[in-house]
Amino acid sequence: MKTSIQNLNNNKQTLTTKTTTMKTLTLTMTSLFLSVLMIFTSCSKNQEMINPTQPNDVLSQEFLTDLENMSYEYTTDQGQRIWPIVGRVVACDAIGGLFTYMSDNNSSWEDIGWGAAGFSLSYVCGAAKVSVTSDSLPICSIPWFNDISKYVELTNPNSKNYMEKIGMLHNDYVPEILLTWAKDNKGLYNAMCVESNSKDLISKKDFNSTAYSFSKCKGEQDFIKFINNSTFPKATKLILSNYITVMFNAKSIAAFQNYSVNVENMVVAHKGLKKETKDGLLLTMSVAKHSANLWNSVL
Description:
The chain is mostly helical. About 70% of the residues lie in helices and about 0% in strands.
């Protein structure tokens, strides 16, 4: 009887030991699993920080609010007081540069500069009733033909805009295209091709069709409509629509250029925009700033 009781106690003790061992093992395995899970989660988060994936542009509400509030500082309620033909040519310049970039993301800065210069000349010559494809009226007959080659750059560069050079190139290329056009009298696009000597220049078909669309734009709302009907990214459309509105209603050219620099800096700093979107916006604004001084000096 004593032996049976002792055996029973021994069995209970063994069972208790096994139970304790199993609990300990279970806790250990759970702890190990959580530790491994935390390690993988941490690695995953770190990997996301190292290699961020951003399929779409995301504009913060703070960015949009600042953009809207800033526009009031640089505009006037007196209407389009400083932008007759100049404003339209500048808009054509800037959007033309962006269109050239969007047509081929591998375009060089030089190709984009040539494209922007070509679009502005197409617009301003059309306004002057000069055909860009025939020799019906020589380009050198335009009153400002000789003045534009004398232009000295006035635009202060924005060191934070890494696409700033494109605006400078645009102002250099406009008189070069004009001089070649005047010499051979074979049309605007041919002069662009000769001067650029590039195989990656925007195609003649795309250039002519887009230049024709620009020729129909007579003011602020027409250019905004062109932007909204384009294939530009949604963030680009939103920012540029506001940008064009401020440009056409700016207090002065200096006010517009100061506004542009501030928007450029906001674009550079915004982490929600893809690089391709930033590139397009920054080159557009660089061309607009530089173009404003060039055309205001001759028109």
